[in-house]
Amino acid sequence: MPESFFGWVTFLLHQYGDVLLKGACVTLLLAIVGTLIGCVIGLVVGIIQTIPEDPKASAAKKALVKVTQLVLNAYVELFRGTPMIVQAMVVYYGAMSMFNIDMSPMFAGFLVVSINTGAYMAETVRGGIESIDPGQREAAVAIGMDHFQTMRCVILPQALRNIMPQIGNNLIINIKDTSVLNVISVTELYFASKSAAGVYYRYFEIFFITCVIYFIMTFTASRLLRWWEGKMDGPKDYQLVSFDPMQDPCGHFPVNVAGKKRKDGNY
């Protein structure tokens, strides 16, 4: 048996590297899929929550919108106000106890991560929508757009860029918080680490490895999301035309860009 700390780390990686890798893959799968579904849920809930009151609408329509918003507000407050570990226990064991539904641990994990993320994303989307200048909404209404057309064509394209950092933040949180799903026997990274640690009782060494794996996943996700945000921003300067019509009305005289040599040899 190894005697040094790094000797044990090397030994445990050799013995349980495949197990930890599979656990990390399950963690990433749960986090990515749960975040994507949660974003869709949050987008829908956020749009419905921001429906303005229409004075011309019928009483039945007003009541329907109000009741829907109250139900969605209750959903948001409930899942933001309770820990994910408790939600996992309620969903997994409650489904069998109350409704006789025998769902798999993985399905329950996807469900819990998705609806939990959806609750947080709903508030993020609502904030992103409300951050857009009200004049743009008024202009859209003035040309005859309804609420959903205004959201799709005017507000959401701008709001989505504003909330991209929070979407990335939710992904990173989910990578870490999927560890609570071990209580319903989801074999993610923490579950795999706990099982491996119990064989030789080397908890410090195995969870040191686990900590490094979690950091690599979250750091990589953070860098990729930063890169994607930069791609969404586009270039810092734009060249809208490649010809100067003032020099040649026919538009065949190339503009000098960054000192590049023209075909005639001049700059």
From TrEMBL:
SUPFAM superfamilies to which the protein is assigned, alphabetical: MetI-like (SSF161098)
Keyword flag tRNA processing: no
Origin: domain of life: Bacteria
A Pfam family annotated for this UniProt entry: BPD_transp_1
PROSITE patterns the record matches: ABC_TM1
A Gene Ontology biological process term: amino acid transport
One GO location term (cellular component): ATP-binding cassette (ABC) transporter complex
Name of the protein described by the UniProt record: ABC transporter permease subunit
